[in-house]
Design a protein that fits this description.
This protein has eight helices and 31 strands. Strand 13 and strand 14 form a beta hairpin. Helix 2 packs antiparallel against helix 3. 27% of the residues lie in helices and 34% in strands.
Length: 551
Amino acid sequence: MFCSISGEVPQEPVVSKASGLLFEKRLIEKTIKDQGKCPVTGESLTVDDLIVVQANKALRPRPISGTSIPGLLVAFQNEWDEVMIETFTLKQHLDTTRQELAQALYQHDAACRVIARLMQERDEARGQLANMQSQGFSANHAQNANGATDAGSAMETVEAEEKAKEAEGSLQEAVVQELVATCAELSAGRKARKGATAVVSKEAMKGMTAQASHTPHKADNKTGVTCVAVHSHFTVPAETHGASTGKRGAAAANASSSSEAGTAEVVLSGSTDKNVLLTHLESGKVLAKLSGHTKKINAVSFHCTVSTSTTATSTAFFSASADKTVRMWTSSEDKYSEAWSYKGHSDEVLALSMHPSGNYLVSVAADGWHFLDVRGGLFLQGANTPATADAAQYTCGAFHPDGLILGTGSSTGALRIWDVRTMENPHTLAGHGAAMSCLAFSENGYQAASGGVDGSVRLWDLRKLTFTQSLELGGMGVGSVAFDHSGAFLAVGGGGDEGTQLQVRVVKDWSPLVDLSSAHSKAVTGVAWTTNSALVSGAMDRTIKVHRPAA
């Protein structure tokens, strides 16, 4: 007789009254306690339904399978299989537990980020309110000193508080008026600027060649140029200007537009070596090396002022880094130093764009874009990424030439158009199949170009609110796009299998004009035009190259 549960000879046999089945007493009692039913038939069963069977408790014989070596091997194999199955089950449970723990940690981290952002916004709001209240108190104090009545002071205090409440959702009226005035000035002068800007012929552009190559950043296999910006009339110390221009050849001197004393064509570059370098465009001499960031540089930009001329000068510049900071650098007694550092972002800063008024700057990070006053590095307003798992993050951004419109790229590949005055997003345009990596506006005011991490390029018509031309380079992402100052040509850097694509296309008919892809051996990360249509490119091979049209 064998137990119906274990299949072995029971030591204390019992029989079920209902089914007549034989069981080991300890096994069936444990089953009844856990399930309350017969494990074989599934019928209800209690301990009272069991009848003890009187049996001889002599020593049980060894099973037949345990009397021979083959039998023992089979028994051992079966036991090993059971152990392996149990181990596999435990590993599955462990993996599931790890996934649940990782998800919980991710949610905890996201919650901490949201709390930190809310606390930052709260502190900024308190600071703005305190400033407005102090300004209102100062105005009231001055009016009281001039003999104003207490009733008038109370009235102005109420008005100041009302203005503070109105300013919470948009820029202050004085800032908006400045933006509108700048837009009116630049819009009125667009036709004059277009006529004054020399357009290089297609034939000359086809003959574009690399006439200078510089490697100003640290020489090692890990260092690469991550971003570039150029200025054709940057103010430099007189002795530096003379020493740099003295090395230039006749052809370069004729091509350069920076013949004014004390100004020079310069390139501003950032690198994975955490440094920002200001370099003379032709000679390659490093004019300044700025250290302060603790991680790689993602974006650089020159300071500018309102001007309808192509010869406007500059003496300051900005840098943004993966260390989540934005820094402004200025010169004093022929030395460059940090003017201020903005640390309001919670993610690495990916892009910078200077407002044409020269007083404001937009910084773009995954957590949102911030509108800053460059006169002190103060946060004025911005848009934050919603604190949801599926929210599209910001990846790049640029101001429209007139300054009232801001374009931002997103991780979904969409182009968002913002009204800077109201901080509203009236249009979101779908275009790229993957995240947008770079964005640029044309000087004509109605076109924009963007690149994606999937190697795609889009040419946008802002009047139609859609893209009109596209280019699929594939491979690595597009590192940079830039219109020349006439708006007739577009430079595209990056894309392709190695990311070394570098080409110039005609904007009007989207035809390829010149291919410079052999200029760099590693991914192109930045392109920029000078006012005389020289193309400057930077790449991860540490080189900065200057390409000029044929004479």
